[in-house]
Specification:
Blueprint lengths: L1 H6 L9 H23 L8 H29 L6 H31 L4 H17 L4 H10 L1
């Protein structure tokens, strides 16, 4: 937590630099997963079909959780928190929602390694990218989050 506190002195209050770095890192990791799938040798047998529906269920669950986490965390906030604590709450919420969104791509990565065709894998990545784009840290989004507090 000290790293976050240091980056968010009074001069950095409300800065979008750290949230955008976190967002870009997690978004970029999903692009690396696609590159890995393209470059790696994967199984050619049909073993992916056994795990397809369980992974779809897991992906739907984590995608839903990614959308619900901000609301759950908003209800748990305490009134009268300092600006630094509010900033830490925002960063924590962002990391959790993006990590949940990224997990959908990881399920697609697993299917890809098991030999699933692109038509089965690409939707996992598409859902991840949509969820992440919805959480892109912008000034407007930040103002919306601040007004909900």
């Amino acid at each position: 937590m000290d790293g976050i506190a240091v980056c968010h002195d009074e001069g950095m209050k409300g800065s979008l630099l750290l949230p955008r770095i976190i967002w870009a890192s997690l978004f970029g990791s999903t692009l690396l997963y696609v590159a890995i799938l393209e470059l790696a040798t994967v199984q050619t047998e049909g073993s992916w079909t056994i795990l397809f529906y369980p992974l779809v269920l897991a992906a739907v669950s984590t995608a839903g959780a990614s959308l619900l986490v901000p609301r759950i965390m908003l209800r748990r906030r305490v009134n009268g928190q300092s600006a630094a604590q509010e900033e830490r709450n925002y960063i924590t919420e962002l990391i959790i929602t993006l990590a949940l969104a990224e997990s959908v791509a990881i399920f697609g990565l697993v299917l890809g390694f098991l030999g699933a065709p692109a038509r089965a894998v690409v939707p996992f990545f598409a859902v991840t990218w949509v969820l992440m784009l919805l959480r892109f840290p912008s000034a407007e989004r930040r103002a919306q989050v601040d007004s909900e507090r």
